[in-house]
């Protein structure tokens, strides 16, 4: 008996440790006879990697083999189950979280220094007194000029723990010596609501670029501001929005739908159905909503459009959406990497799935976008392919279709002038932004007394700027490009980019939308034309 008492704590400790270990390995959805069985497929894969690691004739990075293996497995599933390597996780997490810790500037490497395009409104750098056009020369004694630093290296030097401080030395044109600033790092929002402003006296406009953790709060703030300004109608712009968190989309839909209206339901491989209903908290249940979509509106964007369309709430305007009706869950792989695995399908309130077919492989799936262009669908709604077998009816008798995106109630063809692929590429690659910064930097004082509204209403880009940007781009691309047929469109890009660098906070959209035919259509519908 004394012997048993002496070793009882040890036995209990071992038993508890074993229980924790085994419990951590169990998948409680498995049947009892599978919990302790081996899996020959998993064993085969692990054994192959071990053979390569220990016995292969050359040195091999087995981590890279694992990455290739994971991607190969996912390639045999659906197009939206993806692997996120460890080195990408921080960037992806920040983007979906909606903020990061830093000093709050937008910048680009200019000649041999770090040029501040604009400090983030109310951010740490703006509060410290840093201005657009400033050059950051040193950070905590580390020189940032004269080096060919990549953006990632620069960001590492400027980011840091929350509330930590960084001492900056800054060159400002016109100042006789370098300026010293101490900036306290803070949470910097990565905005998902690009703009919220009034299009007319009664029509408000909100542009959402993705559905991140912070999106609903940003949207709610913008919606409340527009209501205060007298908005009785809202144009919700979801064009080029690739989606994001399903729950955030549900919250936004809830602002427009009456209590207990079905928003969507999901179904997994076991047939389990989960339904989401609107609650009593909506602030815009009585107002009319116009939802703007295009061929790049996907996932959560389609949840919003589909929920409102199927509940006969508002008007969907634009072109057929992308067609992604699969729901992913992010799963940690234990080494800092993760997989976003498709775990269910979602269905709109009428019961339609808007997921495009993908059985022919990923290449065909993504090439379907080009098929839409070739078929003429982006210019003519009659060219949209629909299947009678996927026809559904809303409560008020409107016919809607499943099987490949949300088809709008009001079709607006693509505007090939403002969607010129060359201009879009130049904008995305930063050529227009860099050119505008250089021109602005020559004489910032010319805009110092100009208000945002005065600029938007009255400023005109001169022809000389069009010729200058041609020269600027041709010098860097080393081949001839001309904007003879697109002077007005180039001017619009320049003015919108200039507005963004001067005023930020939705100024780009407010300028760019002045030539947007889909916005024109919304205004006409709002006016009853």
UniProtKB/TrEMBL annotation:
PROSITE patterns given in the database record: PDZ
Keyword tags: Hydrolase, Membrane, Protease, Serine protease, Transmembrane, Transmembrane helix
Ranges where the PDZ domain occurs: 89-144
Pfam families: PDZ_2, Peptidase_S41
Name this protein carries in UniProt: S41 family peptidase
GO biological process: proteolysis; signal transduction
SMART domains per record: PDZ, TSPc
Organism: Hwangdonia lutea
GO terms of molecular function: endopeptidase activity; serine-type peptidase activity
Domain of life: Bacteria
Family assignment from sequence similarity: Belongs to the peptidase S41A family.
TM region positions: 7-28
Cellular component terms (Gene Ontology): outer membrane-bounded periplasmic space
Record bears the keyword Transmembrane helix: yes
């Amino acid at each position: 008996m004394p012997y048993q008492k002496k070793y009882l704590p040890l036995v209990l400790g071992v038993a508890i440790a074993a229980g924790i270990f085994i419990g951590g390995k169990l998948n409680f959805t498995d049947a009892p006879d599978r919990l302790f069985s081996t899996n020959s497929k998993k064993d085969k894969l692990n054994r192959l990697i071990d053979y390569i690691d220990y016995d292969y004739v050359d040195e091999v990075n087995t981590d890279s083999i694992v990455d290739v293996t994971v991607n190969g497995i996912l390639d045999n599933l659906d197009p939206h189950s993806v692997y996120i390597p460890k080195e990408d996780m921080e960037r992806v997490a920040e983007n979906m979280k909606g903020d990061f810790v830093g000093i709050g500037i937008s910048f680009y490497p200019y000649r041999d220094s770090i040029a501040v395009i604009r400090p983030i409104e109310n951010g740490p750098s703006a509060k410290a007194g840093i201005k657009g056009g400033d050059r950051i020369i040193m950070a905590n004694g580390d020189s940032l000029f004269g080096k060919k630093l990549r953006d990632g290296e620069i960001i590492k030097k400027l980011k840091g723990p929350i509330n930590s401080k960084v001492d900056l030395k800054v060159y400002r044109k016109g100042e006789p010596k370098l300026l010293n600033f101490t900036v306290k790092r803070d949470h910097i929002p990565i905005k998902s609501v690009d703009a919220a402003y009034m299009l007319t006296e009664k029509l408000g406009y909100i542009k959402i670029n993705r559905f991140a953790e912070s999106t609903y709060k940003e949207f709610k703030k913008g919606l409340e501001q527009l209501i205060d300004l007298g908005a009785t109608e809202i144009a919700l712009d979801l064009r080029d929005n690739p989606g994001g968190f399903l729950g955030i989309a549900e919250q936004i839909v809830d602002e427009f739908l009456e209590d207990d209206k079905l928003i969507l339901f999901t179904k997994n491989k076991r047939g389990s159905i989960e339904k989401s209903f609107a609650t009593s908290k909506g602030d815009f249940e009585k107002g009319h909503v116009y939802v703007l979509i295009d061929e790049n509106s996907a996932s959560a964007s389609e949840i919003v459009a589909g929920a409102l369309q199927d509940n006969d709430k508002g008007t969907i305007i634009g072109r057929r959406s992308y067609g992604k009706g699969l729901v992913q869950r992010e799963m940690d792989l234990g080494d800092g990497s993760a997989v976003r695995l498709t775990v269910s399908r979602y269905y709109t309130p009428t019961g339609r799935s808007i997921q495009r077919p993908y059985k022919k492989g990923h290449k065909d799936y993504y090439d379907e976008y080009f098929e839409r262009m070739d078929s003429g669908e982006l210019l003519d709604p009659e060219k949209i392919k629909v299947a009678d077998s996927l026809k559904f009816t809303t409560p008020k008798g409107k016919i809607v279709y499943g099987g490949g995106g949300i088809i709008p109630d009001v079709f607006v063809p693509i505007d090939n002038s403002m969607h010129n692929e060359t201009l879009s590429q130049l904008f995305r690659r930063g050529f227009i932004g860099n050119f505008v910064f250089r021109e602005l930097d020559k004489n910032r004082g010319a805009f110092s007394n100009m208000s945002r509204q005065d600029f938007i209403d009255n400023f005109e880009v001169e022809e000389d700027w069009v010729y200058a940007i041609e020269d600027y781009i041709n010098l860097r691309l080393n081949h001839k490009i001309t904007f003879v047929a697109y002077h007005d469109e180039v001017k619009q890009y320049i003015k919108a980019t200039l507005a963004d660098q001067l005023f930020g906070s939705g100024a780009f959209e407010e300028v760019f939308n002045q030539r947007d035919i889909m916005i024109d259509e919304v205004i006409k519908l709002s006016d009853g034309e």
